[in-house]
Amino acid sequence: MHIKLTNGTPTKYTLEKLRRDNPYTSFPKIISDELLASYDVYPYVIQDVEFDAVSQNKIEGQFVQVADQWTLPMVAENKPQSEVEQYVRSVRDELLILSDWTQMPDSPLDSSTKTSWATYRTALRDISTQTGFPADFTWPTAP
Asked: Which of the residues 47, 64, 67, 70 has an alpha carbon 20 to 30 A from that of 88?
């Protein structure tokens, strides 16, 4: 992974592009960092970030140079609340589908267990009424 400095501004750049941009130059198979630097091309590393996949997206930040190393920091960005709500509701809907069998007339469950499942399913349907939904709530526990 490389960048090219153009007027001091770093942009992503590939070694294939370097070869295409310089068609009359014969580059070695493995190009040294020193040779790359003569073309204002430098390697960079990605600085990862922890994030909550349900409520956040991981996006690229801005290139920074520390000492002689270029870094592309990743940044956690909050998803729109409507997107998080939609995701949580889709998980809830899937859990309801997976437990549908518990409420069927021919279910092998006894009435007490069937009632426990019905209570669980009600809690699933009411999940969006919990304080803190969709970012901070408690999933009900299946019987």
From this structure: 47
